[in-house]
Amino acid sequence: MNDFNKKVAASTSADHKNTKYIFIPLLIFLVVSSLSLSILSVWDLQWEDRISLETGSMLFIYGLIFFTASYEVSNHLFFYTNTGRKLIKKFGLSKGFVKEISNKNVSAIQALFCCITGLTSTCYSCTRDMLRTSHYISEAYAWFGAAYFLYDICSMYKVQVAVCEDERLAELTNGNAHNGATPLHSTRSLEGVNRGTTFWSSFIYFLRTNPVIVGHHVFVGGFGFLVITHLRGD
After folding, report:
1. Domain range spanning residue 146?
2. Where would you find the membrane-spanning parts of this chain (predicted)?
3. Number of domains within the chain
4. Based on the number of CB atoms within 10 Å of its own CB, is 135 exposed (0-12), middle (13-18) or buried (19 or more)?
5. Counting beta carbons within 10 angstroms of the beta carbon of residue 145, is it exposed (0 to 12), middle (13 to 18) or buried (19 or more)?
């Protein structure tokens, strides 16, 4: 009977992994399609055209889909592929640390996009009056990139929760869940992340105990976005 239960459990676990693996192509499709639609939405614009509210709103939505799906692609490749599981086993990575890596992967993508945007805008403006010319890509990415800061707050929360779970598991097993590595996000008040009985109470607690990084994201994503769109309107 015990052998039968083990076989059923193993079969269920395998089916669960296969189901999760199926999501990887879908997530990759979301990443590629959201980025492609973003490019197509501004493809016909002249270099110094303004971004309309409708187009900007769509760029924001595409950005939200792109960054969120990119994060999940990285997680799924680690957790639900043979190569990913081998890397986790080889380096002794915890669940929280893997999600931290995924978070940093998306941050690197966003930084690359910022560099491309800045380079394009500079190359266009340097041969003209830099005080009065502005390539539409700066405003377009302000809309698209603003979504990153909203996504990243939620992503950091998920990382923090995973780290908290790793810490709790480490205490139960008297082991080191991080293999000697310290998560890149602050682990202050880790236990408090799960203090709330609901997602929202836990999330609000995370916001209150991480005011610097949350404030940074709100300021850059909100105020910076408003400054760029306002300056291009002059």
Report:
1. 2-233
2. 21-40, 60-80
3. 1
4. buried
5. buried
